[in-house]
Each structure stands twice: as C-alpha cells, then as structure tokens.
Specification:
This protein is α/β, with parallel strands linked by helices. A hairpin with a 3-residue loop joins β14 and β15. α13 crosses α15, α19 crosses α23 and α22 crosses α23. The termini are far apart. The N terminus and C terminus are likely disordered.
Length: 505
Amino acid sequence: MRYIFLGSPAPTNLILMPNLPHTLGELKRSRWAEPPLRGRSVRDEIRANVLRMLQSGEDLFPGIVGYEDTIEPQLINALLARHPIILLGLRGQAKSRILRQLTRFLDEVIPIIEGSEVNDDPFGPISKFARERIAQCGDATPIDWLHRDNRYVEKLATPDVTIADIIGDVDPIKAARGGHLLADELSMHFGLLPRANRGIFAINELPDLSGKIQVGLFNIMQEGDVQIKGYPVRLPLDVMLAFTANPEDYTARGKIITPLKDRIGSEITTHYPRSVELGMAITAQEAWSERGGLPLDLPDFVLELIERVAFEGRDDKRVDKRSGVSQRLPISLLEHVISNAERRSLTHSEPRVTPRVSDVYASVPSITGKLELEYEGELQGGESIAKELIRRAAGHTLEERLGGRSLDRVVAWFDQGGALKVSGDERSEVYLKGLRVVPDLCDAATDAGLAEDRDSARLVAACELILEGLAAEKRISRNEELGYTRAKPERREPGGGYQKGLGLG
C-alpha cells in the first residue's frame, strides 16, 4: 500500500492508492515503464488527457462561465498544439483561475526519485543528485509519487524578481555543509522554474518581469534547458509554460521583449461577460451568499441591478478603460448588499434576509475601491460616480422588467407635491405603509411580476426599484435629505415633458 498526499499533507487530504511501486526495480516491472507513460513529456501528457476528456464529453473548465464559445475552444486548440500560452485580459477575467485549472489535464500521479528537488524522472534523471542515487542504490532506489496538484508553480511577476528566484543560484552554505566546490551542481539552489520540472510553470503579469529575467526564459522555451549562474550546469527541463498579462502592457514597447513574445505559441484574449445574464450567473456562483444564518431571499431584479453596476462602469468614460471594471466588483457588491440586509433583518427580528435597492446604496464602499478613475472622474469623486452608476443600473433594470407598463400616476403624485422619505433600514411592514401612500406604486410592482402583494419584504424591494428607475429617468428626484420628490423644474423640457437621459436627479 502507498499513501499519497494531495496538496498540503493534512489527514483530510489523504488518499489511499494501492499497488504503487516504491522502488526503481518495482517501477521497471510496472505499466509506468511502458509506452506511452514512459518518457512522455508534460505537453504530450496534457494533450493526451485533453483528447480523452473531449471524447468522454467531460467539462474541461468547470466553474468558468461565459467562455464556452469564445475562450475555451482557443485554449483547447493551444493545448492540443502543445503551445506555451499567454492569457491577455483586464483584471477580474478569470485568467489565474484558468491557469490553475490546467492541472486537471495532468496525470493524477507521476513517479519521481525520492528526495529530488526537480522531480527527476526515474527513467531519465536530469540532476546529479538523482543520477548518483540511482548509481548507488540501483533497483533499490526509493520512488516517491507526485500528485498533479503539486506539479503547478505560479509566480507573480514584480520588478524585484531575480534570476536566482526563477532559475537558481549557488548556495555557499550548501556547498560548505556538503564539502562541494561552488561549481558543483550539488551546491546549487534551484529556483522556481527547475522545481516545476515535469509540471506547469505560470507567471502572472509577465510584462512586469524585468528584461533580463525575460531573456532568462528564452532557453527553456526554445531549447528546453537552463543554465545556472554561468556555471556549466545544464538542466533539460520538461515544463509547460503559461503566462498572463494586461493587453495594454503586453503591446507597449519596452514592457515585453520581442524574442520572448515570438516564442509564445498561442495568445488568447479574455473578456468580461458578454451579457448581463452571464454576469449574474458568475456573480451568483462566486459570491458568499449562503451564510448559514437567516434564510436568504435574493430578488433576481436586485441581482440584475448589482450586475448592471459593473456594466455601467465599463461603459463610463470617467472610468479608466485600461484597468477595466473587474468581475470582483459585482461579487463584492453582492456580498456587501447581503450583509447590510442581514444586519437590518437581525435588528428588526425579521424571518429572512431580503436585499433592497437601498442596500446597494449602503454598499458604495465595495464599489469605490474597484474603480480606477480618469481625471474627470477624480474631480467628481469615486462615491459620487458609484451612486450614479447604481442609479443608471436601476433605470436599465426597471426598463427591462416593467414590460411597458405606464407609471404616469406615480409620477403625477410627486408632481402634485407628494414626497416620500423612509429610511432604508426601516422594517418591511412599516416601510410598505409609506410606499402604499403613492398611488399605483405597489400595483405596478405586482403587475410587473416583481413581487406578490402579500410578500412585504419583496414588495418593498420592488417599489424601491421603481422609484430608483424613475429617478434615473429624471421623472422624479431623489435626495438623501428629502427622499423622493417631484422632478426639478430645470429637468423639464420646453414642451412640458421630461428629459429621459440617465444620470443623477
């Protein structure tokens, strides 16, 4: 019996794998000594497993939503072509997650020489340590087993990364303790790249890597080997290389050297969700919403509004297009919205948590930190822009949900001097009494299918959406001090109608 640890050596990760060879002699008599397993490169291994999964109809990239018809086919083609790949995209486009999922295409375990720092193949060792051990022990050489989760090495590129970090360096202490010459391979301290041998080596934000480090990647991509510190030590590494980068940095002169770019086989450009529905699916999947406390009742129109905040930000000229608006924005926003609704429900002893539009406004801090603003945006301030994005998102959500139903009676009530001010933290039943004062407001919410009349919590959320949508269309005004009131006179057009442009009321 052999026991293999997956990831960290925690008892919960222990998996029993019987009949695994534990010496070189046993390995020679096993299926690992026969083709195609013996001597197969990492990229051939990945290709074989991708083909197998395609034939069996498996989901190759589980949890990746919105890339099924765009990015996934390109990735599969690159893996079948055995190419080094680079994912180009703005922040929050699942680039790192995709790279980490590449381990799914590796074999579950592979044999290595026990104690090897570079995952030496027992049938083709590349390090002096492994060669000497095999020469000393012969068929009794102990074999260890490496799980695929431990065959992935990732490094975030920063300007302070050195050649020693990536390739390796001479270790004087190691040389002294072992009695080796400095030029002896046994005195070398291996960097991340040699330690990724027979696995996947990923670099995030490749253009941030200094030029001399990028030069150091040439040999491994073209010749398949590295040299350490100028000493005559050559390691014919077997590594699948993958990178990520921001498109602006990747194409800018001086950010990435042309010979390295030329050696990357496939360049794949990622993107944000192409539709609000796909974005909603991603946000609902990734957000921490099931918290084990009060039951959560999340209206789909609130989830849509939250998602549209990100879409509005991506289209806003005051937001830096080079940074983009990460998909983490709606995820964090939803978590904050649920927390605010959770706090209110617990305060008023309500039976469940039902988020409202006012909870989205209370969650502005989860928006401002994720917006990189242009000069005009900086002048207006992040909080002001965040609130405007919420207002516009509410307007578009209402437009999609209302189905052409007229809200003239609601607007007329405000035009005649009506005003509505209720705290967003108010208990649902009390809030609803105030909302029912506005004629046709609750009926419009129920007629549009946003809520049922007997469900006060949902009805409050639906009525808030209608009021926010009207404010976005400038048919009524919204003021934090006065609440909802008639539209400002300057908003009226000469003919007596209302401007329909979206923005702050």
